[in-house]
Design brief:
single chain; about 170 residues; alpha+beta; 4 helices; about 25% helix; globular
Length: about 170
Amino acid sequence: MKLNPLARTTFGIAATAAVASVGLGAAPASADITNLTVACVRSYGTSEPCEASEIGLHVTDLTPVWITVNGTALAGSPFIPRQDNYGIHVNLTLDCRMTPLHVVAMQKSASGTITSQQSADLSPDYTVGNLVMGHLTGSSAGGSSAAVNDANAGSAESAGCHVKSQY
């Protein structure tokens, strides 16, 4: 009589182990994007508008990465990740300064199937609209007149984003 409950417990453990190994085996053997960030680059300690935007991307292998910003592929895509002491990554500095950004990064298999994808957003403190309105209303929160004159130069709405540097 005591063997019967023992047999059920043993079977339950064996069945659980078998199900767990099947679940592990089903995972795709492909590269993954592990982290994607978009940040505003500005002088340390200031609250001025962004000087540039930066994309930081960490991956698990050297598979090329396609990056789109606000629905448009960045010139230079796909980007080849580089490996150094900090891991495997793609770091880009963009000329977009005062535009909300929606960034999508993806890796594809040789057949073109997307194997990994992540997205990130940036809403800068200063946009072209609030700089111009601040200047027109005399608000100190609007930034400098030089920033207003220069506002559209860093706007993705007027020119799109371009890669300034890759490191």
